[in-house]
Amino acid sequence: MKTIEVDGIKVRIQIWDTAGQERYQTITKQYYRRAQGIFLVYDISSERSYQHIMKWVSDVDEYAPEGVQKILIGNKADEEQKRQVGREQGQQLAKEYGMDFYETSACTNLNIKESFTRLTELVLQAHRKELDGLRTRA
Description:
Helix content is 46%, strand content 20%. The chain is of the alpha/beta class. It has a single domain (18-137), classed as Rossmann fold. The protein has a three-stranded parallel sheet with strand order 3-4-5, sandwiched between helices. A two-stranded antiparallel ribbon has the order 1-2.
């Protein structure tokens, strides 16, 4: 659990990292059902991990609640010399799926806070719209 403050609101987030491992697939589908925000992460030094994103998006669309917020992440941005997936490829894929896009590095903390803050903002915005819709119907 981690707490992030966004617009003066403290939000507690729970992170589930499956590292793309198929053995977690059954459990992952159960977590999708309760998810409000999802990072879809690939390794910029692995074309194979990038290609798997389409399957993960398909799973999210099938199992996650409608309106779940998603952000595409190209991780390991500190390994530029090993890059197999261009930044433009990530940006284009994110655009196709209507997601924000960040390149991050867990080693250097590049865009880590920014991406978590943005996903939290998107989730809060979605909840505000949902609450506003309920208020107007009442």
